Amino acid sequence: MTQGWQRRSTPLLFVAFVLPNLTPALRSQELELRRAVANPADGAAAATAVTTILRNELHASQSDQLARLLELGEPAIPACFARLAGLSIEGDSVAEGIDSTTGGPSEPPPDHQLLLHALRSFPESAVDEFLRGAIALAPELRDTLAIMRVSGELGRAASLALLQSAMAGLDPRFHGHPVVAGTLRNALAAILAGDRTARGDLERFLLALPPAFATCTIEAIRAADRDLASALSARLLGRQPELDRVLLEDLERHPPQRARDGFAMAEVLRKLSASETAAVHRASSYSLRRFADVLSARALIVRLGDTDERVRKVAHRSLLEMSGVALGNSTKEWLDWVNAEVSWLAGPGSEWVGALDSDNVAEVLQALGSLARKKIHADVFAAPIGAVLRHRKLELRLAACEALARLGTLACREELATVLDDRDPQVAALAARLLGRSGVTR
Known about the structure:
- The chain is mainly α and about 450 residues long.
- It contains 25 helices and 2 strands.
- The longest helix has 25 residues, at about 330-355.
- The two termini are about 40 Å apart.
């Protein structure tokens, strides 16, 4: 065992063993959870046997130790958990262990992996039943944290319910506490890495959490799958006002990277105009600037007449950024503008789109220039301009790259990304440079 591990575990001997009716010598090192196993005699014998197996005076292999632990059956679960909790109690022991002698990550002691493997090998229902009981009877925060860490290390979807139970029973004084948030984030990350099926329960999990833990939860989900986090945020927005505020703040830090997620998010943001919470109303108006289209513009124009002056100001600022035109805060002015844009799209705009198929290079270049000035219709133009990326004329392909970059929506960026590996190095290099300016990396 490295010195780093010794320093982490030495001050925390209170978690060295858990639970009931063990010998007096062992009880002094137990968590006071007081949960009895089905047969006290079997529990005490199993705890003693676990201690003997881990002491490993006969230098048995880990596979032999594991086989002996499993032979003890379910009564050994409390003692195995107690030992593992003792090794995991300070921070995420595997992911964040630092060896004080080298300054680098330390390896967990052999017992850690052995005990974890044993708990994963016991019947899942029995382990979860024990942990649920332990959560209900955990006397102190540090005990709850130990249970959360072990639940995460089990790395299976069922552990989400254990984390949810731990959060539900948490003293409100600790809502948002950084240590609890960090433990939850790391435990959730381990579960998502260990069992992909856990992703299907995340929506329900997030809705059941105290809102103070929403940020760290979204962070853990994003670490596992960035696009999943964006899609989940779009599904959750509008469900709980307190959660909405957290998700909208997160949206500003981490906007969607896929067009389909952007479309879903924009639809939800438009609906949030009906929110009774001024902060949510204002934040959603600000976020709508990212999703330029006629529907979003109309939603913002409605908000120009909001009773809250701050919402009106935010809606106006978003319209200015989305449209690229300099109009005042008059609802009528903006309605006239958006109606004119709709008429343009049906008339000249449609003709310019048709011109993209012309054999006349100058005509296609003129069409690209005209369409690139209409960001409000960018998602409509993304596919037709994207088709020009495959034109036989290099000049037109380069111009199409510029037009898509100027429009700049997620759909346009996705079209531009299709030529990152183009056979012509000039097209590939230009696409990479233009995407790089918008913050997109390969």
